[in-house]
Amino acid sequence: MSITDILSPSDIAAALRDCQAPDSFSPKKFFQISGMSKKSSSQIKEIFRILDNDQSGFIEEDELKYFLQRFECGARVLTSSETKTLLAAADHDGDGKIGAEEFQELVQS
What we know:
Helix content is 49%, strand content 6%. It has 109 residues and is mainly α. Strands 1-2 form a two-stranded antiparallel ribbon. Helix 1 (9-18) packs antiparallel against helix 2 and helix 3 crosses helix 6 (100-108). The radius of gyration is 12 Å and the shape is globular. It starts with 8 loop residues before the first helix and ends with a helix. The model has no long low-confidence stretch (mean pLDDT 96). Ca(2+) 1 binds at residues 52, 54, 56, 58, 63.
């Protein structure tokens, strides 16, 4: 399964355009524009599985840097501050990584 099986390619493109400039990525805005925040819990968990590049059950900080590229291969990498902000917003238990439940809470908040 690919992300475009769940999210519209035009919505993904619009979300990526919105955060083209370095340090302009806002997780809440990205989730809204891409349509992810309107998806069901099971769809969000499927997106999580796609984003979890190493299939460890978590999205670690080194995977977060490439977050936008998981939506479109030509997208930019997140800056260090964007990566840390995204991790801090989702990592509720402080283990330094984002689990499926934490990701779902972030997307749907």
